[in-house]
From TrEMBL:
Involved in targeting and insertion of nascent membrane proteins into the cytoplasmic membrane. Acts as a receptor for the complex formed by the signal recognition particle (SRP) and the ribosome-nascent chain (RNC). Interaction with SRP-RNC leads to the transfer of the RNC complex to the Sec translocase for insertion into the membrane, the hydrolysis of GTP by both Ffh and FtsY, and the dissociation of the SRP-FtsY complex into the individual components. InterPro entries: AAA+_ATPase, P-loop_NTPase, Signal_recog_particl_SRP54_hlx, SR_rcpt_FtsY, SRP/SRP_N, SRP54_GTPase_dom, SRP54_N_sf. Residues 1-150 are annotated as: Disordered. This is Signal recognition particle receptor FtsY. Residues 73-96, 117-127 have a biased composition (Pro residues). GO terms for cellular component: cytoplasm; plasma membrane. Transmembrane segments: none annotated. Residues 232-390 form the AAA+ ATPase domain. It is an enzyme of class 3 (hydrolase). CDD domains: FtsY. It comes from Limimaricola pyoseonensis. Residues 137-219 form the Signal recognition particle SRP54 helical bundle domain. Its EC number is 3.6.5.4. It is found in: Cell inner membrane; Cell membrane; Cytoplasm.
Length: 440
């Protein structure tokens, strides 16, 4: 099984939730009109056809309403020409399109870059929402006749279809909101799906493909591997609430970097919790990477300074610093993090070169407020979303991408050391929606 096949299998179970919801929505208004393909298989040039009588019968429950009252649909879910500028998000050996790294599998979800700091974090975050909106509505048929041929019925058998009207759009919005996609994003996605399709009859697989296309479009701009600089050591500060998966992610990253030929040092910066330090030591052993610890209660900044000194002395490529995640006392945490930063900057004014925020997908919308908070207390440069395996709440990543535009460097898809995968927007969109066809 290919890497991505495996990933898809393990990637969360949101699709089952969406699946069920979509089936209910379509079946609710579905006509048993199965053989009425003539109307649907040759969609006219995309002009909204609110009044177009679609099928001989039975009449749709509600006449398709004017699309105007929806948030302005800006992008037809027109087939994207595979985002010409989309870079392969990560550098796993099996990722198509990546320059075959000299290093062998599994390469870390990182990318070699030249300039130190300065640019990476605040990358001109084109609001993905904006980017997500395709420039202009274009006529679908002209772009993907094969896809439309399939979507609109040619030779397709008995999939129930429902005419796309306002009521159905509202239900779709609701479903997406329930899938943790957030209100704004859900509205935008459904508006884009509606563009040029009002009055058309859609089946569940078609809606999934459309949804997946919209989601992939939102996620593409943020799918970026962690930049790697020629700085020694490159300092990566790892932040996030307790239990989000920081320790595990540090272990997985350390292992991947090592396999990619980098020398790594880990600093166990959550010095107040003995258990956290022990866990990190276990992960360090697994990854074959030294873990610097300090007696319980030591000032984390002092440990970070020592770790920096050691990493510099040893010429280490990377220093991964774990931190505490006690948001209960935000002020303390903020001071602790700023002190760590102040201290390591004495050794390297550009450090930390990356500040990774680790988020737990199972917390749903809570992850959104964690991004907000950590952006305030730390200069977050990128995200890792953990526990996407087996949760039905992966939709929150779409909301986060749409709202914050922070790069998503990697995703956690299990508890084992190699369960850190590069973030692939299309794969993610398919897994989230259960889409199997060509993405619109
Ligand atoms: N299924 C799954 N479990 C994960 C993943 N990442 C981490 N976990 C589990 O989540 C739990 C918490 O992970 P930790 O790495 O200890 O989290 P932490 O943020 O370091 O937590 P503290 O040590 O309390 O600060 C552990 O049981 C991990 O095995 C993932 O991607 N998938």
């Amino acid at each position: 099984m290919s890497f991505f096949g495996k990933l898809k299998d393990r990637l969360f179970s949101s699709s089952s939730k969406l699946d069920k919801g979509l089936e209910e929505i379509v079946e609710e208004g579905a006509e048993a009109q199965v053989e009425d393909t003539p109307e649907t298989e040759t969609p006219e040039q995309d002009a909204p056809r609110p009044d177009a009588p679609q099928a001989p019968e039975p009449a749709p429950e509600e006449p398709a309403a004017e699309p105007e009252e929806r948030p302005e649909p800006s992008a037809p879910a027109a087939p994207q020409p595979a985002t010409p500028d989309a870079q392969p998000p990560v550098a796993p050996p099996v990722t198509p399109g990546m320059p075959a790294a000299p290093v062998t599998p599994p390469a870390p979800p990182v990318r070699e870059e030249t300039p130190p700091r300065a640019e990476p974090a605040p990358e001109p975050t084109p609001r993905p929402a904006e980017t997500a909106r395709a420039p202009e509505p274009q006529a679908e048929p002209a772009q993907k006749p094969g896809f439309l041929g399939r979507i609109f019925g040619r030779g397709e058998a008995a999939a129930p279809r429902r005419e796309l009207d306002d009521a159905m759009l509202e239900q779709l919005e609701e479903l997406l909101i329930q899938s943790d996609m957030g209100v704004e994003t859900a509205l935008r996605v459904t508006a884009n799906i509606a563009a040029g399709r009002m009055g058309r009859k859609l089946s569940v697989p078609e809606i999934k493909d459309l949804l997946a296309g919209e989601i992939a479009r939102i996620m593409e701009p943020v799918a970026r591997p962690m930049p790697i600089y020629p700085k020694k050591p490159q300092v990566v500060l790892v932040v996030g609430v307790n239990g989000s998966g920081k320790t595990t992610t540090i272990g997985k990253l350390a292992s991947q970097f090592r396999e990619a030929g980098k020398s790594v040092v880990i600093a166990a910066g959550d010095t107040f919790r003995a258990a956290a330090v022990e866990q990190l030591q276990i992960w360090g052993d697994r990854a074959g990477v030294p873990v610097m610890t300090a007696p319980q209660g030591t000032d984390p900044a002092s440990l970070a300074f020592d770790a920096m000194t050691r990493a510099q002395a040893e010429g280490a490529d990377l220093l991964l610093i774990d931190t505490a995640g006690r948001l209960q006392n935000r002020q303390d945490l903020m001071e602790e993090l700023s002190k760590i930063v102040r201290v390591i900057r004495k050794k390297d004014p550009d450090a930390p070169h990356n500040t990774l925020l680790v988020l737990d997908a199972t917390t749903g919308q809570n992850a959104v407020s964690q991004v907000e908070i950590f952006q305030k207390i730390a200069d977050v440069s990128g995200l890792v979303m953990t526990k996407l395996d087996g949760t039905a709440r992966g939709g929150v990543l779409v909301a986060i991408a749409d709202r914050f535009g922070l790069p998503i460097h990697a995703i956690g898809v299990g508890e084992q050391i190699d369960d850190l995968a590069p973030f692939d927007p299309e794969e993610f969109a398919r897994a989230l929606t259960g889409a199997e066809g060509e993405l619109a």
